[in-house]
Fold this protein.
Amino acid sequence: MLIKNGKRVHAAINIYAEDETYDEIIKQAKILDELGVDGIIMSDGGVIDAVKQAAPHTDIHISTQANTVSYHAAQFWHKNGAKRVILGREMNKEQIKTLMANKPKDLEVEMFCHGAICFAYSGRCFLSEFLAGRNGNLGDCAQSCRWAYNIYVEETNNPGALMPVETDEKGTYIFSSKDMCLIKEIPEIIEMGIDSVKIEGRLKTEYYLASVVNTYRCAIDDYYQNPENYDYTKYLKELEKTKTRGLTTFYFNDKNNKDIQDYSGHQYNSDYEFGGKVIEDKADKVLIEIRNKLNVGDQMELIVPGKIEPVEFQIEKLWNDETLEEIQTINPGKAEQKVILNKPKTDFVWEKDWILRRKKEK
């Protein structure tokens, strides 16, 4: 299913299914098969068997939640019709190398390289459903592991007398993991023969996704073109412009890595925010749909797909998109609110939906 920009489309039916859900699963699989989706991501063996029959023209992709952390598991899924497996985040690079050396040659392998890490093993978590009645496996995770908690201890000889464990005014974030970041390790990942890398984007804005996906795309392309001079620092600098938790390589380099939790609950790198997205290039002006307050004098950056260096410029003028009246500031006041701003000189047209970020004032 090659859509207009040449990308493939994968859909997820990634639940642990109960018997009463199979009629709907089969219905959805048939629709996806008719649409020509390139792959369906699944983890439940029963679902995989049902989808194989309902969607015979669509590739089977095995989710990280199916616990593929060995080449034996990869071989099993291949025998059951899988075209691709998505590795668990729990694997280190030595385990991945072993899997790559022993897997069936026509089995594609995908691994996580960046983003939020689920507190549960391979994403199999029921904390959200237990605390908030929202099922993470149905795409409705409340991210309960990111909440602040108050912790108490109880002396066994005095039941009911709860004593609070020392925390700050926000409690403690005992379940909150740092975000994975393997930008430095891209050369190793490529040399392993990994077919694709996966970026966690659940509940993230299009600004976050545009920034992170473009950075990894540029890093991978640049390494292929000039592997001897790969410098991860310029890509890391770009990643740090997105709001994130602390960064960790998780278990990739060291299975005993303990630097994976962020007990403070802080988010970092908040010097930039989502400014808006391009609607129409108007030669020396550009019409954008705004996402945050914009002012004359603001420092802006345009994220250009395929380029690691953003286009930097200052807002010198703003115009009301309906009256063309010149204004000094604009706040998001309605859905899809737009504004016209001055555009710096570039040797290319700004495409619809390209992302603008705004540098916050100190």
